[in-house]
Amino acid sequence: MNRPSRPQSPTSEPEGLYEELHEAFAEAALDVTPSAVPIAAIERAGRRRRRRRTAAALGAACGVLLVPLAVVVLRADLSSGQGESERVTPPAASAGPTPSTSTELAGKVRIVTPGERVEVSPGTEIWLTEDGKHWSEPDHPTQFRSVSDGNLDLSSPGVSVQESTHDGVSFLSGIFHGPGEPARVEVRTVAGYIDGTALTLAGEPGWGVWYAEVKVPQSQTPTSDSLTAGVAEKVTVYDSAGGVIASQEFAT
């Protein structure tokens, strides 16, 4: 009895095929040149990551340190009675005038037009014309002192004075003449030094009028009105540089 024949095993053919493919892949791999490893880029990326980690760690540490400090400041404010909403307002600058010192040129000078009346005090006025000084006072007629009748020598510096007293206040005035533009009038009186005011016409006429008012103690108040009552002891007119334009002492 004949036995059926066993079919041939197919395993030998695939094994040969696998070996051929392996050899082919190996040859192909040998022909491939690997690219260079980006060492510099890797190092830069690593440094950036390390810096970010360091900055994050420092920020966290600073936050931990600042929290107790904020608590301490808040407690100090609360203990002193200051809340978070309290605001500190700087003191406002004073709106009042700054007191002048004795070294300042505190006098006044006013340029007026001919015939312009200047009120010195209620009821008392002074005005200038080209020929001299005019003034009026309560209960007194208008008075006049000329600069052109020859009574004043305008060729040399000088100061005149007229005085009157009402209710304990002495009104002092006069004519000054000399080279230069006036900037300050200083009057020495029996009650001390005071600053006077100068009136001049435009165009540098070479003369002007000064006036002042001073309250005199009862013991030194003149007993009658006169042209030289003795309240003014000396009058000096200065220019802007501190030079003397005219100065005159009066008998007391």
Measured distance between first and last alpha carbons? 182 Å
What's the tally of helices?
Answer: 2
Q: For the CA atoms, what is the radius of gyration?
A: 54 Å
> What can be said about the biggest beta sheet?
9 strands, mixed
Tally of domains: 2
How much of the polypeptide forms β-strand, as a percent range?
Answer: 25-35%
What's the number of extended β-strand segments?
13
Helix content: 10-25%
> Residue-averaged pLDDT, rounded?
74
Structural class: alpha+beta
Give helix and strand order, one letter per element, not per position. Answer: HHEEEEEEEEEEEEE
Could you outline the blueprint of secondary structure elements for this entry?
Blueprint: H1 12-30, H2 39-79, E1 108-112, E2 118-121, E3 124-129, E4 132-136, E5 143-146, E6 158-159, E7 162-166, E8 169-177, E9 182-189, E10 192-201, E11 207-215, E12 232-239, E13 244-249
Parallel strand pairs: 1-10
Antiparallel strand pairs: 2-3, 3-4, 4-5, 6-8, 7-8, 8-11, 9-10, 9-12, 10-11, 12-13
Folded structure, characterized:
- By secondary structure, this protein is of the alpha+beta class.
- The chain folds into 2 domains: 42-82; 108-249, no CATH class.
- The protein is built from 2 helices and 13 strands.
- Strands 1, 6, 7, 8, 9, 10, 11, 12 and 13 form a 9-stranded mixed β-sheet that branches.
- Strand 3 and strand 4 form a beta hairpin.
- The longest helix is centred in the first third of the chain and has 41 residues, at 39-79.
- The protein is rod-shaped, with a radius of gyration of 54 Å.
- Residues 64-106 and 224-228 have low confidence and may be disordered.
